[in-house]
Amino acid sequence: xKCILTSYIDLYDKDEDGNRIAxxxxxxxxxxxxIKKYVKKYENFLFVASNEFDNEATDVYANVTFESxxxxxxxxxxxxxxxxxxxxxxxxxxxxxxxxxxxxxxxTQNKFFNNINLKEKIxxxxxxxxxxxxxxxxxxxxxxxxxxxxxxAIDPKFNKVYKGLGLTNINVFPHYDELKDYxxxxxxxxxxxxxxxxxxxxxxxxxxxxxILIDDKNYLYGEAYLIKDGKIEKINENDKIKQI
Length: 244
Hints:
- By secondary structure, this protein is of the alpha/beta class.
- It has helices at residues 31-38, 55-72, 89-95, 106-115, 118-121, 134-137, 176-179, 189-197, and strands at 3-6, 12-14, 20-22, 44-48, 77-81, 98-101, 128-132, 142-144, 161-163, 171-173, 183-184, 187-188, 203-206, 211-214, 218-221, 224-228, 231-236, 241-243.
- Strand 16 and strand 17 form a beta hairpin.
């Protein structure tokens, strides 16, 4: 199975009112080259939601994704997998040529994936699977998920570990360039949570525009850092490729 774990694909800009304007996402760190390499035909694109019931938000993100791919690498048909279509999930997955697991809140998306037994359903696909942000995190077998929303960092019941899709054993921390100084409940997520947890989990912190390609081996594209055993080490540069 071929997979891409990324922080994001640069699908849109925002105008002054905050509206998302789709654009050609280009070939930063050879992302377009790799999608073309592993997509065998361009018939069916499947967008998998992060929240099965928030259909309005799903449509916003899905539509701008579809528009961007239409500009860059068009498919014949575009489908959404959420609460409206989960009864035909098997059919949608089986006919997909590219499956896009979108970003969002990791625990919420993880619950959706478990509700529809996506781990088992996705085993039958020959599609390229792209996970963006939360989607990339939930692709792991054991998903490491630090707090993201206010209240989570101080909640003793907040679970940082979930069972994921089992597509890889790699844990990613997406948007590292944006979130390296991120505070939740006035707690520095990287310094006070992720680094202490790195004695138990190896975490690849990837910048926006960077990604990990899973083929027969694992390849890191773009600037990224390894958080391991209480230390942060820069392991790759933008426009470079490293086997990991």
